[in-house]
Amino acid sequence: MPRPSPPTRTSAFSSAGPTYRYLCPRVSTRTNLVAHAAGTSAVMAAPGTSGWLCSFVGRLGRSATRSAMPGSGLPPRRAGRRGGWYRGDCHIHSVYSDGELTPEQLAADARAAGLDFIATTEHNSAQAHRVWGRYAADDFLVLLGEEVTTRTGHWLALGVAPGQVINWDYRVGDELIGRCLDQVHASGGLCVAAHPHAPYPSGSFMYPYRGFDAVEVWNGLWTSDRPWNADNEAALAEWGRGIGEGIHTGRRLPAMGNSDTHLKGQIGIPHTVVFAESLSASAVLAGIRAGRSWIAGSAEVGLSLTALAAGRGAGIGERLAAGGEPVMVRARVRGVPSATVSFHTDLGAVHREVLPESGVGTVEWHTTSGDSAFVRIEVRHPHGPMAALTNPIALT
Fold first, then answer.
1. Any alpha helices (H) in the chain, and if so which ranges?
2. pTM of the model
């Protein structure tokens, strides 16, 4: 985000680099110039007709070595720990673009929110890359990224090289986006369509999903107190309609959820829970790419989903070869009192049950691969807001 108007280059060349201007409804309290110690970028804000008009000044970075060198300030690509489920927020902004928090504050808040990893995704900039190394640790991974804020949609470049900036100055029809996706993939990174139905100019995603690795179906608190909004509902419905075809053609598009943090109290609402072989950049990105993930509204929410048939089992993002045998699907949920758990297949919503007030429960449902090409679940609070949702298990 910043829920902006389209980016406009206001000076093609300057000693500090190009300037980008956005209308930022979320940045409601900034009143002064924020200059960074490195002297390479700055943010200015002044009240506009709606929201705040923000100017970003900074040099476009260049690709650099992928490994963090001692004293470079870059985060290591491997943090530590073995295989398991890791919680992470891959869409955050700091004072290095239009956020109001420093990297130090964001790192502390991410840990407090129960996150194991984050991605730094400033708008059209790599200025923050060298700052984040001091906050990475064996139990806290920092991915390098960028929110590529084009004129007709935003997308996340995750796992890019240190200092690498992906071109943003184009729109649908310019035939440039494919080249940019290739650059990210060549660096071993992922491309994620961000908030595809965001209700502001340039926020709606006008590009086809072809070439993207995931879609952000749940984007966070773009209003002060509503973590689930109509634009998320639209993104979820659009993604859900394409799951069956994606499984049939082998071109799955996993779902992600990220906070799009700009302000205090937003990080981790929501976040993506990923199964990774280790807490490392390559393993986390591989888990996201494979759809071995689910989305949580907070770290208080826990979930598992398994499908079992004839002694075989599969989990989220996997494929179960049921061989015509009956399939039992089991969901375990905690942390969502009186929630509704719904099961979804290529036929739509096929089963619902309500959890007890304790918020802890197990729900089972039976099907066959002939009746269901896949199964996924949604967990909603009473009255409808989302608490968690999963990527599908494919059934064959």
1. 103-112, 177-186, 230-249, 281-290
2. 0.84
